[in-house]
Amino acid sequence: MSHNRENEVNLLGNINVEYKMDYDPTILEAFENRHSYRDYFVKFNCPEFTSLCPITGQPDFATIYISYIPNEKMVESKSLKLYLFSFRNHGDFHEDCMNKMVNDLVELMDPRYIEIWGKFTPRGGISIDPYVNYGKKETKWEAFAEQRLLQHDLYPETINHR
């Protein structure tokens, strides 16, 4: 079953891509998971995320960690990059941004499991690090998500450089 990935994605390799400056989940593209018979994690580390505070309009900066166990579909990385960029002028609280990302990626891929952890740089002496996850309903991943949520930060990092 060999077929071209070019038929599945439109943004990869396209040099005339528009960088949207406000939140747009329609940018996301998916492609077939050729290994859906196996459980495995796919992880993205996104150290240049920015959005805007909805009250002050000031920029918020974060590293976003996205980890998921694909089902039949996977997110294409260039579309993910453009999607994350689309938050650049979007005014929303940190927690809302992370929840929107999980919702959008679940809608796109219907993954077995997904988690997103936003680690925001401090403003006013406080950093906010929302963690959101989802496990496919009525599967073992639903229970996995609950356990992972309850234990996600049992060993917090030492933060002395943010």
From TrEMBL:
<dbReference type="InterPro" id="IPR029500">
    <property type="entry name" value="QueF"/>
</dbReference>
<dbReference type="InterPro" id="IPR043133">
    <property type="entry name" value="GTP-CH-I_C/QueF"/>
</dbReference>
<dbReference type="InterPro" id="IPR016856">
    <property type="entry name" value="QueF_type1"/>
</dbReference>
<dbReference type="GO" id="GO:0033739">
    <property type="term" value="F:preQ1 synthase activity"/>
</dbReference>
<comment type="function">
    <text>Catalyzes the NADPH-dependent reduction of 7-cyano-7-deazaguanine (preQ0) to 7-aminomethyl-7-deazaguanine (preQ1).</text>
</comment>
<dbReference type="Pfam" id="PF14489">
    <property type="entry name" value="QueF"/>
</dbReference>
<keyword id="KW-0671">Queuosine biosynthesis</keyword>
<dbReference type="GO" id="GO:0005737">
    <property type="term" value="C:cytoplasm"/>
</dbReference>
<dbReference type="InterPro" id="IPR050084">
    <property type="entry name" value="NADPH_dep_7-cyano-7-deazaG_red"/>
</dbReference>
<feature type="active site" description="Proton donor">
    <location>
        <position position="60"/>
    </location>
</feature>
<dbReference type="GO" id="GO:0008616">
    <property type="term" value="P:tRNA queuosine(34) biosynthetic process"/>
</dbReference>
<keyword id="KW-0560">Oxidoreductase</keyword>
<protein>
    <recommendedName>
        <fullName>NADPH-dependent 7-cyano-7-deazaguanine reductase</fullName>
        <ecNumber>1.7.1.13</ecNumber>
    </recommendedName>
</protein>
<keyword id="KW-0521">NADP</keyword>
<feature type="active site" description="Thioimide intermediate">
    <location>
        <position position="53"/>
    </location>
</feature>
<comment type="pathway">
    <text>tRNA modification; tRNA-queuosine biosynthesis.</text>
</comment>
<comment type="similarity">
    <text>Belongs to the GTP cyclohydrolase I family. QueF type 1 subfamily.</text>
</comment>
<feature type="binding site">
    <location>
        <begin position="94"/>
        <end position="95"/>
    </location>
    <ligand>
        <name>substrate</name>
    </ligand>
</feature>
<feature type="binding site">
    <location>
        <begin position="75"/>
        <end position="77"/>
    </location>
    <ligand>
        <name>substrate</name>
    </ligand>
</feature>
<keyword id="KW-0963">Cytoplasm</keyword>
